[in-house]
Fold this sequence. Notes:
Blueprint: H1 30-45, H2 49-77, H3 79-87, H4 95-103
Helix pairs in contact: 1-2, 2-3
Amino acid sequence: HEFIGMRQMKGENNGQSMQQEGMLSFVRHPLYSGSILAILGYLIFAPSLTNLIMGMILVLYFITGIYFEEKKLVIEFGEKYIRYKGQVPALLPSWKKIFRQHKNPKKK
């Protein structure tokens, strides 16, 4: 069973390499990050115990998904993914990295 974020990275076995550009250079799981932001936004818009419980269940599902996805990605990409995992946070971007890239954009 694959979780949502597995679609972000294609296997090298298919002739494609692990993607690390764009949003994936800031967070390893941008789909989960966006989903969590949407859940928080909805809780602010419609606060209730039911919405809080549902939001917590979804976040636990995402955390479980991240755990299993990353095990699979380490098997698939090995040391390359382990290095990426050490450099890029899972859900919350590093503000230092965002501002550093904003000050020094890459020239094409």
